[in-house]
Amino acid sequence: MDRKADWQVSWFDIVQSYGQVKARNAPVVHMVRERMVMTLDSALARLAAMLGVTLDWVELRSVLPASTGDWADPRLRRSALASSFLAALELAKQGRAEIAQEDCFGPLRLRGIARG
Predict the structure, then answer these.
(1) Please, what are the domains in the chain?
(2) Which of 32, 48, 64, 91 is disulfide-compatible with 97, CB 3.0–4.6 A?
(3) Per residue in 70-86, pLDDT tens?
(4) pTM above the 0.70 mark?
């Protein structure tokens, strides 16, 4: 006895199946969009320069770049705050700054240490 398969598919089914196989075997390329951020190095240089000018306590947020131009973007402001916080910790670790915070979640203050 001879068996014969009788396939019935639409053109859409064939194209869809081909697309699924092609998608499964195609390499995936993930492109990360470039974002503006304040780097740790630039925050460190900025804070070190500012603390070298004054020995008084200053609030960390007050030494962030002004909210104009590119710095008006809230994502860039958050990046600047995070980088400046890490820079302040690094300066304190190096013995070049003191950090103080009186209340939980209160403002973070810092000042330069006079080197003699």
Answers:
(1) 40-112 (1.10.10.580)
(2) 91
(3) 778 888 888 899 999 99
(4) no
